[in-house]
């Protein structure tokens, strides 16, 4: 159907003989067939609300592969009446036909099979060899001049239906094979002439650019030649002036040399007379120089000795400072230890005072116990007189009580001593 549509469009356009517009039926059928060809094998893409299947995705990819297609893609996006991707794709096909570059755009697209695989299935028409055949047939559409109004046309809601009755063969079609052969020959010649015209235009433009560059370079060379001539004239004048100045300088130098020659002879005579006195002065100065050099050597030796002594003094001072710092550190440590010992002594003194107070209390208790024992002894003596048996019992009880009290007092006294120690 694509072959028949392209062939019918070319034949009808040549017989029509003028620029085609949007209402031309074969042109409308061509766009419908191309739309079906581009939809064949197109992958279904999931959108937010439903499934989407549009040809605008691969056509939008052309501007990345073919830089000249950026203008047509921008124009399609800027059209105000287009709301759907299918409407943008239809507008893109119409603009590409008007530019006579539809074949070039689709050729760049079918070459990139790896990019097309994102939009088409492996059995799609654009992925097979038939796609390249259709692109080759589209080259013949370059003979057609179309003037299509895309801005005011409703491309979003059009229904693409193929009219097969246009492509059915009839007796007139069978009898017109010779005319088809002639039209094909004319089309081939026209394509050849257009290609030759493109090449000639490119060569003419390159030659024009070359002529312009040569003219610019020629004018620059002429200007440089005039400047060089002026420079040569100036240099010749300066050369003549320098030669005249050179002769004058030569004459002046000759006179000056004669005068200086006489002066040099007179100075030579005076030099010979003063040479002898200068020799004597030189020997005297040499002797003084030796003495001063010896004196300087002695001073340098003494200076070395003084420097070494200074270094030794500085080293001794450093060692002394280090010793002083160490002694100060030890003194600080001893002071800290002394403070600690004083604190310990104060603490022991306080403990001693407490232990002495406890000793006094224990001694009072012991004296009281002794008074009680004396009273008990007196009572025992009185009781012995009354009843000997009771006396013996009370005596044993009192003695045991005294022993326990004395043992307890002694034990507390030892504890007090230990605490005070």
From TrEMBL:
In this chain the RUN domain maps to 21-153
SMART domains this protein is in? RUN
* UniProt-listed Gene3D superfamilies: 1.20.5.170, 1.20.58.900
Which residue spans adopt a coiled-coil conformation according to this UniProt entry?
204-245, 282-389
CC terms in the record's Gene Ontology section: cytoplasm
Q: What is this protein called?
A: RUN and FYVE domain-containing protein 2 isoform X3
Record flagged with keyword Translocase: no
Q: Which UniProt keywords apply?
A: Coiled coil
């Amino acid at each position: 159907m694509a072959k028949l549509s392209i062939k019918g469009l070319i034949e009808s356009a040549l017989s029509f003989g003028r620029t085609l517009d949007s209402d031309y039926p074969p042109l409308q059928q061509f766009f419908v067939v191309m739309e079906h060809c581009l939809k064949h094998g197109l992958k279904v893409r999931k959108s937010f609300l439903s499934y989407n299947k549009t040809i605008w995705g691969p056509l939008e990819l052309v501007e990345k592969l073919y830089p000249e297609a950026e203008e047509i893609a921008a124009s399609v996006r800027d059209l105000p009446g287009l709301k759907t991707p299918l409407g943008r794709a239809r507008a893109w096909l119409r603009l590409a036909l008007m530019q006579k570059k539809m074949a070039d755009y689709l050729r760049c697209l079918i070459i990139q099979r790896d990019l097309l695989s994102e939009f088409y299935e492996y059995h799609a028409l654009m992925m097979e060899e038939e796609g390249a055949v259709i692109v080759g047939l589209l080259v013949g559409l370059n003979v057609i001049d179309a003037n299509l109004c895309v801005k005011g046309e409703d491309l979003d809601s059009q229904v693409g239906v193929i009219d097969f009755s246009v492509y059915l063969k009839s007796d007139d079609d069978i009898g017109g094979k010779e005319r088809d052969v002639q039209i094909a020959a004319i089309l081939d010649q026209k394509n050849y002439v257009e290609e030759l015209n493109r090449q000639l235009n490119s060569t003419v433009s390159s030659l024009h650019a070359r002529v312009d560059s040569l003219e610019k370079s020629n004018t620059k060379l002429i200007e440089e030649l005039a400047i060089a001539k002026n420079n040569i004239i100036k240099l010749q004048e300066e050369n003549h002036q320098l030669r005249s100045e050179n002769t004058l300088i030569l004459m002046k130098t000759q006179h000056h040399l004669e005068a200086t020659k006489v002066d040099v002879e007179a100075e030579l005579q005076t030099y010979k007379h003063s040479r002898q006195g200068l020799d004597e002065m030189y020997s005297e100065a040499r002797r003084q120089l030796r003495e001063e050099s010896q004196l300087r050597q002695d001073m340098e030796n003494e200076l070395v000795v003084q420097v070494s002594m200074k270094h030794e003094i500085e080293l001794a001072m450093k060692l002394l400072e280090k010793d002083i710092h160490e002694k100060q550190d030890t003194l600080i440590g001893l002071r800290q230890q002394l403070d600690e010992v004083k604190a310990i002594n104060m603490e022991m003194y306080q403990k001693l005072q407490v232990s002495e107070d406890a000793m006094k209390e224990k001694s009072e208790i012991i004296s009281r116990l002794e008074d009680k024992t004396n009273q008990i002894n007196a009572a025992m003596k009185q009781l012995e007189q009354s009843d000997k048996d009771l006396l013996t019992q009370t005596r044993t009880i009192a003695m045991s009580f005294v022993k326990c009290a004395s043992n307890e007092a002694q034990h507390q006294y030892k504890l007090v001593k230990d605490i005070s120690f």
